[in-house]
Amino acid sequence: MSFDTVVQDIQDRLGFAARSRKSPMHTPVIGTSDGDLRVMVLREFNADTYQLRFHTDARSPKIGCIEHDPAMAVLAYDAEAKVQIRMRGVGTVKTTGADIDAIWDEATNFAKRCYLAEQGPSSVSAQQTSGLPGWAEGINPTADQIAPARQNFAVLYITVTEFDWLYLANTGHRRARITILPDRAGWKGEWLVP
């Protein structure tokens, strides 16, 4: 096994995870600098820039946390393949721009529906609720009905600075750290004791 093999494995797994709901790495655990964790859907992995893309609500508490301290961690695991990928990186949130509008336009109205919530995520409620207005529960809204949700949509980019790749094997585990160079023009590999 070589560092090139490890990097290719990371790129292949994350690329597939972004494209397929069937990938066990499609919903990694995302950590912010305050120690909070959540599962998010990986929407895109750019192998050239080592950047992950996620969608979120602009009113979410994690947005303020990322703006205050953009350090982030990501954990993805494939139990069948026995491969864990831990990532450290820097988060950036965007809510406007032609690129964000294009991402919004690509989503289905049903997926956009969650951004219709009357209050932001983590808001306290007197009763259990989806947060959606009653009329939006269980329907696939029209483009006109979904239009107000656009203001609550945000894209979270995590630019990975370090990968920690672990392969679990009966014959002996293998672990590597891949550090992305500051100019993003390459990487440095180190073997680690698992």
Structure description:
The protein is of the alpha+beta class and 194 residues long. The protein contains five helices and nine strands, in the order αββββαββαααβββ. Strands 1, 2, 3, 4, 5, 6, 7, 8 and 9 form a nine-stranded antiparallel β-sheet that branches. A hairpin with a 4-residue loop joins strand 5 and strand 6 (83-94). The model has no long low-confidence stretch (mean pLDDT 96).
Which descriptors would you attach to this protein?
9 strands, alpha+beta, elongated, nine-stranded antiparallel beta sheet, 5 helices, 194 residues, single chain
In short:
It is built from five helices and nine strands. The protein has helices spanning 3-19, 61-68, 98-106, 109-112, 143-146; strands at residues 29-32, 37-39, 44-46, 51-57, 71-78, 83-94, 153-167, 174-180, 187-192. The protein is an alpha+beta fold.
Determine the N-to-C terminus distance: 15 Å
pLDDT < 50 runs, ≥5 residues: none
Number of helices: 5
Anisotropy-based shape? elongated
Topology:
Elements: H1 3-19, E1 29-32, E2 37-39, E3 44-46, E4 51-57, H2 61-68, E5 71-78, E6 83-94, H3 98-106, H4 109-112, H5 143-146, E7 153-167, E8 174-180, E9 187-192
Antiparallel strand pairs: 1-2, 1-5, 3-4, 4-7, 5-6, 6-7, 7-8, 8-9
